[in-house]
Amino acid sequence: MPAWNELTVHEAKARLDRGDVSSRELVETLLAAIRARDSQIQGYLEVDEADALSQAEAADARRKEGRQGKLLGVPIAVKDLLNVQGQPCRCASRILEGYRSPYDATAIARLRAEGALFVGRANMDEFAMGSTTENSAFKITHNPWDLARVPGGSSGGAAAVVAADESLAALGSDTGGSVRLPASFCGCVGLKPTYGRVSRYGLTAFASSLDQIGPLTKDIRDAALLLQAMAGHDEMDSTSIPSPVPDYAAALRKGMAGMKLGLPKEYFVAGMDREVEQIVQQAIHHCEQLGATIVDVSLPMTPYAVATYYIIACAEASANLARFDGVRYGFRVKDAKDPIAMYMRTRAAGFGTEVKRRIILGTYVLSSGYYDAYYIRAQKVRALIRADFEQALQTCDALLTPVAPTAAFLLGAKTADPLQMYLNDIFTASVNLAGTCALSVPCGFTSDGLPVGLQVVGPAFGEETILRVGYAYEQTTDWRRRKPGDR
Ligand code: GLN
After folding, report:
1. Signed CA dihedral, 40, 41, 47, 52: sign only
2. 3 state SS for 87-156
3. Identified catalytic residue from 167, 178, 199, 440
4. Which of 128, 130, 47 is nearest to 91 (CA)?
5. What residues form DSSP beta bridges with 444?
């Protein structure tokens, strides 16, 4: 029988309901795993043990009173950019040093209403800008499968703690791939919901037209469970859509037979790691054996996706990050002579290199004279990218693609070259530009023992479809049973 910390959310919930384990015991086991492993993995920025135990005891007491909740007593880790009342929320940045959230993000409030507990702040790239978690101002997270390698990013801490059984599940955010990429590199499931499906109220904004909150989990059923609890309209986020939330768990059971799955030909080209490509091809073949029909599709604007993404994301970030000025949140330099000097010195000292690079790039593409040449042009290309996806998804139910061109690479390998780093997002960022949904499901291991993810991309509000594909694949393979320690 697996240790409590190795359970999935749905398994833990069943054990809690049966009385096999209390929430306190579950959290104690997790805290022990964190103490034993996290000094190496460095997935968490903070864990408040006393607070975690008191949340668990409160859940046990509620259970005794006969109260219910789909996640009653289940601990979840949270990427450091989602507000949880009373907890620090630093976005892995010095500029938010000392800040504590006065309120819960809507996604958190909804999970809390189902009885979930929030046990720790997961490390990330500063303000979610990065693909490896090396841009955190505080620590570098290591990949549990090989400590010399990156966990992916920007939700790298969230993925690493799930993979290392230091959490049952985690919440991350995905602006250009930040849930799917670390899920692929760490061998867990990562889901980016459709733009508008989950409220972003209380998610620190990076690029508001792209950001979504998504779960990182040990299996597809858990992704469906967490999405179910978080999804739906919220009057605090005007971009959240008032359409009804389907029953995701029911969708899982439908299987893959009769489905049509498209392979975008631009995603299977030279430049990919050969082994990763073979693993993804095998996964596609497996889907065919499960009764899906594989068809070729085209996303002709693919070569422009990364450039378009970085123009739009930086432009929006430069505006969103203007609020961190030393007045309202967190850190402020001491003894500045006047307010302007205070703003400037606070921002110079508070933001890291990558964040500054993006604020400068974003300000540049929005400046008079360059606005039309860069920002407006990127918006036009974005419309074409969206049209590509709409067209391709008219001829099939979902797309199958790699998540990233490689498996996890060595720490430091790409930090000197931002362009190389940005190219990791080639298969993921266009989904955010199109605004649809996608997930990463483990589909094999390289000869070095590193996990590889298969991306399933769906149409807008097609979460049922991609979860159904992911589940049928997952249930007929056993990649998810392999653990980092087995190597
Ligand atoms: N790697 C991308 C970036 O650095 C995506 C980040 C994200 O999704 N938050 O912008």
Report:
1. negative
2. CECCCCCHHHCCCECCCCCHHHHHHHHCCCEEEEEECCCHHHCCCCCCCCCCCCCCECCECCECCCCCCH
3. 178
4. 128
5. 452
- Nearest Cα residue to 301 out of 192, 389, 184, 405: 389
Residue 178 designated active-site: yes
Quick count: other Cβ atoms within 10 Å of Cβ 65? 6
Segment 36-59, tens digit of pLDDT = 999 999 999 999 999 999 999 999
Q: How far apart are CA 155 and CA 81, in angstroms?
A: 10
Ligand 1 center–CA 238 separation, angstroms: 23
Residue extents of the structural domains in the chain: 4-257+460-486
Atom of ligand 1 nearest to the CA of 313: 10
Which atom of ligand 1 is nearest the CA belonging to 129? 4
End-to-end CA separation in angstroms for the chain: 20
Output the pLDDT for position 351: 98
- Closest Cα to residue 96, out of 136, 67, 57, 60? 136
Would you call 440 a catalytic residue per the annotation? no
Q: Fold for domain 4-257+460-486?
A: Amidase signature (AS) enzymes (3.90.1300)
How many residues in total does the chain contain? 487
Give the Cβ contact number of residue 236 at 10 Å. 14
Dist. CA 300 → ligand 1 center (Å): 22
Tell me the pLDDT tens digit for each residue of 358-387.
999 999 999 999 999 999 999 999 999 999
pTM: 0.98
Q: Is 194 helix (H, G, I), strand (E, B) or coil?
A: coil
Q: Are 152 and 38 in contact (CB under 8 A)?
A: no
The reply to whether 199 belongs to the active site is: no
pLDDT the model gives residue 487:
55
pLDDT score at 131: 98
pLDDT band at 270 (very low <50, low <70, confident <90, very high): confident
Q: Is 425's C-beta closer than 6 angstroms to any atom of ligand 1?
A: yes
Span 146-174, pLDDT tens digits: 999 999 999 999 999 999 999 999 999 99
